[in-house]
Amino acid sequence: MKFLVCLKQVPDSTVRVKVAADGKSVSTDGITWSISPYDEYAIELALEHKDGDASTTVSVVTVGPARSRDALRQALAMGCDDATLVTADDKIGGLDVAKALAAVVKEAKPDVVLCGKQASDDDQGLVGPALAETLGWPHVGMLTKIAAAGDGIELWREIEGGHEVWSTPLPVVGLVHKSAKEPRYPSLPGIMKAKKKEIPEKDLAGLGVTPGAPRAEVVAMEPPPQRGGGKILKADGDVKALAVELARLLHEEAKVL
Amino acid sequence: MKILVVAERNDGKLRRVSAEVATKAKSFGDTEVIEVTGTDRYHPIAHANAVAAHAKSSGADVVMTGATLNGRDLAARVAAKLGWAYAADCTDASAKDGAFEVKRPMYAGKVRATLRMPTPAVLSIRPGAWTLPSGAGEIAPTAVAADAGAEKLKFARFEPTETSSKRVSLSEARVIVSGGRGLKGPENWKMLEELADALGAATGASRAVTDAGWRPNEEQVGQTGKTVTPDLYIALGISGAIQHLAGMTSSKVIVAVNKDPDADIFKIADYGVVGDLFEFLPAFTEAVKKTKAGA
After folding, report:
1. Domain ranges, residue A36
2. A173 close to A115: Cβ distance less than 8 angstroms
3. Does residue A222 fall inside a structural domain?
4. Is residue A234 pLDDT above 90, yes or no?
5. For residues B183 and A154, is the Cβ–Cβ distance under 8 A?
6. Are residues A234 and A126 in the same domain?
7. Which chain B residues contact residue A156 at CB under 8 A?
8. Minimal CB count within 10 Å: which of A87, A219, B14, B104?
9. Do B195 and B215 contact (CB within 8 A), yes or no?
């Protein structure tokens, strides 16, 4: 089986995000960049498949600025076979990214394309479904498991109370929510091997994509309202009285009970 | 401005977010409310084709869905099909100079963004973002047939989560009781559930807890789990990792119980209780029951 995982490089999830001086973007000073968490799960899902079947190949691709090469290198070190960088401005819109990815997919001809269900920077979740729509392929969201079934595969979609299991023809796009195991760390031999691999570069024009699809435009960004100054109650005396007091505060003061 | 609202059902009943969006949409202009029928459940291609075709034929300027699992999935595919601008999980929207201005969280809730949406556009609206006014009229969506013949996926079966609770869904809940590592083990969730039952609340969990397999993944609140905005969020034995805080910091009122006075969760809590969870929790559940009975 041939997998293609689409990933995005984003500020690491442990980073405290700050709004930049322009008031409509995020400050990138001293930021640690990582593969978006759901994309890491997507890589792990594909690699788990490869662990069980040596004939499986896992390619990765990203559409983004030159720094995204590090994220691709990381994916190679985790065990992916090859990587492609499509260089583009990091402000490119989701529909244009989907068009660029669709062009890459048409050349690479994978059986399964995996994307994280959303990137942890813009949290839109547009690119995966848009890629499927552009290709005319089916897609399954909230993917947590890929299982072989007869000639095809079954895709597990997490919903409230359990999983929907969908049988699908190939090719298909999966939007990954979680993998069975935590994404693996690169091994030392993996890192050494990844260093030697060429990462071919493409650009939008070469893929026949002229960016300009309608899109949302950020006009302002602000940190969420500061919280704090809450009431702290210490449970070192009468626990029952404290419990009654908290219930009273929630009822009379906060009016949520 | 012509608004097309796509309503959604859960167990045959209209979801509350559908009523919230349909009611608010009227303030933007001429509003039509539809629901896609003819399939036993949500099918991405069949539903997106039907909604996109209806949006075009009816001359809609904006398509709105609730930002539920299915609503977000649908909205994204519809936006791609129509080639329209898209914003997910909006917490507010207003018409402005022939365009829409929307607010939505980004960076897993660490940033709030205001975006300008050229129309036509597709928006998914976060449940609870627009509270339903009391006395709001019933919503009666028009049925639009799914393009079932175009669907390529086949539904095989449903696999229920064994430990899954039969409570309100986490993303739409007005009250959430969440547990962390401080609860020490899955066997202690009974205590948390008693409080949740007394409050009519959904149950949530920190990532440490779902990773350890104490609770199902679907209960995870935070950056790689669900982002929630209930009226009341009660965090029990959760220290407050930045990824968890990102998922619940927009809750209206936050209560935290933790034995560590320096836990980060207290920095954002409206009410904090420093002390032993196992002593406090049963007493608090009792107090809640009494307050509710008296209210």
Report:
1. 2-207
2. yes
3. no
4. no
5. no
6. no
7. 159
8. A219
9. no
Residues A132 and A257 in one domain: no
Q: Do B152 and A19 touch (CB under 8 A)?
A: no
**Residue A215 within a domain:** no
Detail the DSSP E strand segments found in chain A: 2-6, 9-11, 33-35, 57-64, 82-87, 112-116, 139-149, 152-159, 162-168, 172-176, 201-203, 217-222, 231-234
Q: How many domains does chain A fold into?
A: 2
Residues of A in contact with B169 (CB under 8 A): 160
Cβ contacts of A257 on chain B, cutoff 8 Å: 199, 232, 288, 291-292, 295
Interface predicted TM-score of the whole assembly (ipTM), two decimals: 0.94
Residue A254, chain B, CB below 8 Å: the answer is yes
Q: Which of B278, B290, B282 is nearest to B195 (CA)?
A: B282
Question: Per the domain annotation, does A112 fall within a domain?
Answer: yes
Q: Are A202 and A255 found together in one domain?
A: no
Give chain B's domains with CATH numbers: 2-150 (3.40.50.620), 175-294 (3.40.50.1220)
Nearest-CB residue to B153 (from A19, A133, A140) = A140
One digit per residue, the tens of pLDDT, for chain B of length 295 reads 999 999 999 989 999 999 999 999 999 999 999 999 999 999 999 999 999 999 999 999 999 999 999 999 999 999 999 999 999 999 999 988 889 999 999 998 889 999 999 999 999 999 889 988 888 888 999 999 999 999 999 999 999 987 656 677 888 889 999 999 999 999 999 999 999 999 999 999 999 999 999 998 889 999 888 888 899 999 999 999 998 998 999 899 999 999 999 999 999 999 999 999 999 999 999 999 999 998 6
Instruction: Assess contact for B239 and B258: CB atoms under 8 A.
Output: yes
| pTM for this model (two decimals) | 0.90
Q: Is there a single domain that holds both residue A237 and residue A202? A: no
Kindly state whether residues A72 and A128 are assigned to the same domain: yes
Residue A91: exposure state from Cβ atoms within 10 A (0-12, 13-18, ≥19): exposed
A24 and A65: one domain? yes
> Considering only CA atoms, which of A112, A106, A123 is closest in space to residue A202?
A106
**Identity at B28, one-letter amino acid code:** F
How confident is the model over A136-185, as pLDDT tens digits? 999 999 999 999 887 789 999 999 889 999 999 999 999 999 988 899 99
Q: Are A103 and A70 contained in the same domain?
A: yes
Residues of chain B neighbouring A99 (CB-CB closer than 8 A) = none
Residues A193 and A93 reside in one and the same domain: yes
